[in-house]
Design brief:
By secondary structure, the protein is α+β, with helices and mostly antiparallel strands. It contains five helices and four strands; from the N terminus they run H-H-H-E-H-E-E-E-H. The protein has a four-stranded mixed sheet with strand order 2-1-3-4, with helices on one face.
């Protein structure tokens, strides 16, 4: 009886052992399969992650290279721009210096012309002042008579068509001393012929011209005064000595 119970227990133990082993083996296989599956998934994910990292690395390196190239381009552009600005500033500086020099030259020439005009005017004033003191009354009248005769001769040489076309309402003769009757008659006779009409002229005494005659027929003017002669003489002297 005891042996039978023992045998039954052994059989039950063996059945339980085999059953448990089967169940354990099955669970173990399932666990191993899951573990292998997880390992495979991890391997795939790791490979994908590595690929992603490699791709990201390549993209980053490409972006870095592009950034480096862009930086080099910007550097070159900045260098070119800097050189261009430098050249432009140099050209601008040269142009400004040139303009300043040209402006200075123009101002110097203008000052020279102004000084020349002042010098000429001063010379004329000095000459007139000297002539006033040099020519006493008898000598002054004699010199004036010669100048008037010379002036009348010049009027006589003017072509008639130059005077006949002149429009006028008044004729004025300006002189330092009154014309002599013979000079007045001769000048009137010449003007009658030149102007093709019987004329009368107004005589004005102006001692400031020292000597000579100024004839005004409308806008037509003939200046035979000493002052005008001095001005022309100084202009000729200025040209000769490059004043």
């Amino acid at each position: 009886m005891f042996i039978q119970v023992l045998v039954i227990q052994v059989i039950i133990f063996l059945v339980l052992f085999i059953g448990l082993r089967f169940l354990f083996s099955r669970q173990l296989n399932l666990a191993l399969q899951k573990l292998q599956h997880l390992q495979h998934e991890n391997s795939v994910k790791e490979s994908e992650l590595q690929d992603e990292l490699d791709r990201a690395k390549r993209e980053a390196e490409a972006e870095i290279e592009m950034g480096r190239e862009e930086a080099n381009k910007i550097k070159e552009e900045a260098k070119k721009t800097g050189n261009f600005l430098k050249i432009e500033m140099e050209n601008k500086g040269r142009k400004e210096v040139k303009n300043l020099l040209e402006k200075s030259i123009v101002e110097i020439k203008q000052n020279e012309i102004s000084m020349q005009k002042k010098a000429v005017a001063y010379s004329i004033d000095i000459s007139l002042h000297l002539l006033k003191h040099i020519f006493r009354l008898p000598l002054k009248h004699s010199f004036h008579r010669e100048l008037v005769d010379e002036f009348i001769n010049e009027i006589d040489l003017i072509e008639e068509n130059r005077l006949s076309a002149v429009k006028f309402e008044q004729i004025k003769v300006i002189c330092a001393c009154a014309l002599e009757p013979s000079q007045k008659d001769r000048l009137k006779a010449i003007l009658d012929v030149k102007l093709e009409r019987d004329i009368e002229f107004e005589q004005e005494i102006n001692e400031g011209i020292i000597g000579g005659v100024i004839l005004k027929i409308g806008t037509f003017l003939v200046d035979g005064s000493i002052k005008n002669r001095l001005t022309k003489a100084l202009d000729l002297i200025k040209k000769d000595i490059k004043f």
